[in-house]
## 1
Amino acid sequence: RKLRSGERKCTLADAQFVIARSHGFMSWPALAQHIEHLARKNSPTAQFEAAADAIVSGNIQILRRLLQENPDLVRQRSAREHRATLLHYTSANGVEGYRQKTPKNIVEVADLLLRSGAEVDAEADVYGGGCTTLGLAATSVHPEVAGVQEPLLQILLDHGATIDRPNLAGNTHSIVIACFANGRQRAAEFLVTRGAQLDLQGAAGIGRIDLLKTFFHSDGRLKPSATKKQLQNGFLWACMYGREDVAMFLLEHGADLLDAADSGATALHWAAGGGHAGIVKLLLDHGAPLEETTRWG
């Protein structure tokens, strides 16, 4: 805005900084050094970048050759600030934007990397840090669109990927809640069948009303293992993902029609946005106002 109004001039240093940041580097000198290393055909940087390109294009022959020529490549880290390993690139999430794509053979690619010694729970410095390939793949839209998300998650689990440590997809969430927050309902449901644990809000989002009821005493009070915040978040997930029986149950147990919690919008907004007419009617019948705005207006 200041540039457009003429209050501030764009200097060469400003332009260099913007270019560096757009390529995932903290500074222009860091990007310049990366380019210098990239120009050396057999440098570790050049090999890593070639391998990353092979992964996202599904060129398993080139990837296999690169791994045979340099077995340590599978544990190498990107020079970019996310510090991703090659395995992280199979998630199509958190890495540079132009490489966020999923070839149809990504499961075969991931299996090759894992059998070549990739660390299945290696962490990348994205979304607050601590992200594993499982967490990133579960919350990524690209594997889902390609129709390979569940097989990709399964191959990672088969190789021992941790499923229940918080923050696998960043932002301190459990993996199930991270899936909900990123619109990956089917991934959440799949991971629950593979042993992902559910708290109150997770049970609500999945639609497990049987499990949900275990977080309450017979008189309707929350048990110590659950919190009012989890109740409200669970109510919002239920409205977002069409869990009408859960929404009714939580309304009867203290859910707030106006509390957007961490989501930025009320239950009515989420139900209407998801096209869940039954829940919309339920909320209106309980007095949800039409005049509330979201965090975004």
## 2
Amino acid sequence: MSAYKITAVPTKHPEILKFDSNGLVSPHKNFEFQSIQEAEESPLAQQLFMLPFVKAVYLSSHFIGIHKSDIVGWEDVQDELIQVLEDYLNSGAPVVSQQDPISQAYTLYIETTPNPEVLKFAANKNITAQTVEYKNEAQAERSPLALKLFSLSYVQEVFIDQNYVSITKTRAQDWESVKNEVKQLILDFLSSGTPAVLPVEKNSAQTQDPISLQIISIIDEYIKPAVAGDGGNILFESYDPESKVVSVLLQGACSGCPSSTFTLKNGIESMLQNMMPGKVNEVIATNA
């Protein structure tokens, strides 16, 4: 398995920094600790509270949030914290000692999507910290779950997000006769404890211009949660300041969906134009 890598991400609160992980941190439950006494069940949080500037620790599926006091600046401690977190996670020590993923069995729910060729298989707890899409088996070498799914002759594409899998089938196959087979395959895989997606090293964050960062923020906060409900995802690709054109990538159920054009124009494009007056002329999908 690849080593854990941590990337620091600013938040709206100047004293809180998110430390994103390329692997699962606390996959079954979120935690918030305001003191070392509260953090009794988390050896990692206890270790962080030993640092004099740490006021609170937040644990989620794919990140650790740290609230610091104003006695130091992030530029003075950020690199040290990244090293502490990477060393701890790579040591194999438990993040939360009382967390028992085996005690809660996976439950899977089948949901339809606006795309008739795609079904969404949603789990009752997180299965990955990454968002990945595979158009064929050759692309899926880092996802044991996707490779299993591609062994089914009618599986055409696989999209995996935090707690669900969206699967695109071939048009020749009807879902009614195979959906339970797919559901059981996913349940058996998750119950085995094998990671759905292997962690990968994150590339250095690409510097984005302020308008692109604002677009990304709007997409993440307002648009992604809505399309995730239908088993899809919208990924920002680029912004052209001269033409004021935003390019996005449609993933999961959004890719090839008959209603994707309506969503693109009347949803994403209208929202960006209303929230960023004069900054966006058009939104296009590079894979529409």
## 3
Amino acid sequence: MHMPEIEQAQKIKIFLFFLSIILVIAGAATLTPPPDFPSGSIIDVAEGSGLQRLSLELKKENVIRSPLWFRVATIILGGERDMKAGQYYFERPQSPFVIAWRIRWGRYGIEMKKITVPEGFTVQKISALFGGNFPFFDNAMFERAAPEGYLFPDTYFMPITATATSTVKTMRDNFIRKIFPIMPEIEDSGKSLEDVIIMASLIEGEANNQTDREMVSDVLWKRLKIGMPLQVDVEMKTYEFQGLPEKPINNPGLDSIRAALRPTSTPYLYYLTGNDGKMYYSKTFDEHVAKKQKYIR
């Protein structure tokens, strides 16, 4: 190799060396938090945010330096299609890889509170569970916006930053997940989802075990079929009018929803709950009256 060629090769090596250093420094800079990172703040990741949009919003909030590197980190972690919406608390600056990991797995960094919603709770009773531990929760808004009957009773771990809107969405989404496996059965039944949930809410209020739920279900569907008022004590308007109530009266659990779909065939048209807590069934009104006198004193 001639001298000019050797010198040229050396120059290329030196250039590549310095270029690699520059690229490493530039890459490292983009993988470190911005100098004005919003430490001590809460960043909201909206439901349905796409990766592109989220990366630009995080850049705008000074949470990351490079939207590109954040997207790369998210894709590497497999979170581009499963980002957890919610409010994330950032106590101190974090790298885009850590932020991507947190959003992928829903590590909110916010204190969580356990909330248990029993079967049959109304919207108003659910609202009362969110007391002083949830400073952003608007009870009046929740009671206006929440769809009675479609908030699934369950145990939830809610961030203390939960709002009325986010709570409705969490419980409504849980309802959809739980009801999805039996939707084919609902469709095959010839009944609408609304009618099934309304009936389930009545059953939830009337019976406290699965055997009685399924028997009560049979009695109530039978009364509907023959045009007889439902006459259930948990909804006194059913003594005055025929048919189902206009909307659910509470938020039923899955057992009551299944009972509404799968009634146990019986010869009965009447039932009552005795003072002993047991349910007694009758074929005729006279038999029903006799049992009323015997078991309800």
## 4
Amino acid sequence: MMIEIEKLMYREKPDMMLVYGDTNSTLAGAVTAAKHHVPIVHVEAGLRSFNRQMPEEINRVITDHLSTLLFCPTDEAVRLLKKEGITNGVYQTGDIMYDAVLYYKDDAAKSDVLALQKLNAGKYYLATVHRAENTDDPKRLAAILDAFETLDAPVLFPLHPRTRKKIDSIGLRSCEQRKNMIAIHPLSYFDLLQAAASAKGILTDSGGLQKEAFMLKVPCVTLREETEWKETVTAKWNTLVTPDSQTKISEAVSRLQKPAKHPSLYGEGNAAEQMVQHMKSWTQHG
């Protein structure tokens, strides 16, 4: 990735390198830009799970320490950067994913994903599982699938290709052979947004989906020991569970309920506008 990004930088000569999130491409863009002395803008800066076993955590930390402008989704992210000595160029803008949820929610509502699967709103769970610590551990993967079979409503389960491959290679019963589970191919953004908005609850190890669950006011069980979105747990819309036992998972899901309060955690839906203004200001004044 870095070789190809470098070619692009030589050709385009960018004024800034904007990178998003915590993927390997985020880190590749940031490191390449830093070597060429191109200012880096990091969207979704300041997140920390404090689990250095996660590749994403390494990517976040390095990218933040290389960046010139750091756009944080929450006050907590600003605070964590300050603890690491990063204060210049740090802005709390709200979360750009919330912008997207608000902007596309009505379009997503036109999706026929529920009709195709013969599901009714509020009468099913949406589940996603893709993290290596869950898919590569036979005990955990079995516990997760076994728990899904015990729940009080069907589980709509868009299967990540590597998850399906691991189920087959480990020798577990396929999702199609299990009761209570509707295994389908990965969904488009609109279909996933509609499936999430209409679910009784969301069960996931995804960072983005647990946050979208909060934005859509759907309670969530996160199949991980920790999360970079701690505020969703504090607000009681998100429950962490170590997915090494079918009983643990089933009990966590059985306790799901919508809290009475839904605090504003991720801004007002104008994060992108703020980011653009900060970038314009920096290019004009430094």
